[in-house]
Write a structure and sequence with these properties.
Helix 6 links the parallel strand 5 and strand 6. The strands form two sheets. A seven-stranded parallel beta sheet has the order 3-2-1-4-5-6-7, with helices on both faces. It is α/β, with parallel strands linked by helices and about 400 residues long. The chain is built from 17 helices and 13 strands.
Length: about 400
Amino acid sequence: MKFFLIAGEPSGDRLGAALINGFDEVLTQRANFIGIGGENMTQTGFKSMFPMEEIAIMGVGEILSKFFFLKKRIGQIANAVIQAQPDALITIDLPEFNLRVANIVRKKSNIPIIHYVAPTVWAWRPRRAEKMAGFIDHVLAVLPFEPPYMVNAGMSCDFVGHPTVEEPVATASQADAFRTRYNVGRRPLLLCLPGSRKSEVNRLTPIFCKALTKIKASIPEIRFVLVASATTAEEVQVLVSECPEDIIVIDPRDETPDQALAIKRAAFRAADVALAASGTVSLELAASNTPMVIGYDMGWLSRQVIGSMLITDTVTLVNLVSETRFVPELLGRKCTSENLANSVMHVLKSPSDQLLAMKDTMKRLGRGLAPPGQRAAISVLKSLRVKSTL
């Protein structure tokens, strides 16, 4: 069998690698994989047509600045798919780019098209699913409540599990070693996670720092640790230097990639509570059994536009998956230092409900079941068999 895969960002690259490994587990003969991917996919033997980073572009401004380049790449990749005539085109997340490729391929061929990671139509712009149905045959969903949205729009869809459930989690001894290394001891430890994008870090870090000062006034013995991403570490160091509190900054540039990841996981497990930007990090915290408070803000215009489109009362995945609202979520105008500090102190005092919700979340996401990559491979093969009988 031959599959054309397109991944355009690190998370998609990890999903793609797991999917390739999943096919290896369920097929008697190794399939042929072609397309675009990153480091994780290439480690499986996959050869990318060009560096994945060329299409790993986010944000309206960056997309507009490279519009003609991206448009050219979209056309090139669509033509490559049609020429290759794979058993299926599998686009992995990155909808702004991948769905445009898929649309062109469908107009010019009958190649089955599968999209991995359902768009968040449950949160905003629900009609995206209906538009997708015109050229996407099957969807691989990573959240358990997503299939009905895709099926109702006219596509087949399977929940295949979230990748977080198979990510390693630090042990208790590794958490203790982290506390010893950074002289935390048995004092309360707050983990600060202001985001992985520069715009998020620049906007949220000053607000988070003011919240830490208020928390310190009520809990003098508390310690703070901030885990930076490689792409934002420089900005984080500058912003933290302006914060009056003593913050332990975990800078991944000081370690090898494997060491930095191990330290990050240990910090997650060692923390008593986390103050984090909105995103999939809430699931990483749930996997480590770390109670959390979610805060997020954006520019005025984005706040108005996105706020008017939201169709859910929460965007925190732990709340959504567990069907509870035990994770405090302070967005937009509610994301103030006072609100964040009060919520953190409340969670520190009463984490039990949230701990149960996090445990339920991981179970619902597929913890203890077959790996998501393997489940995704099985779903792809099932969808192709169904399509071939029509």
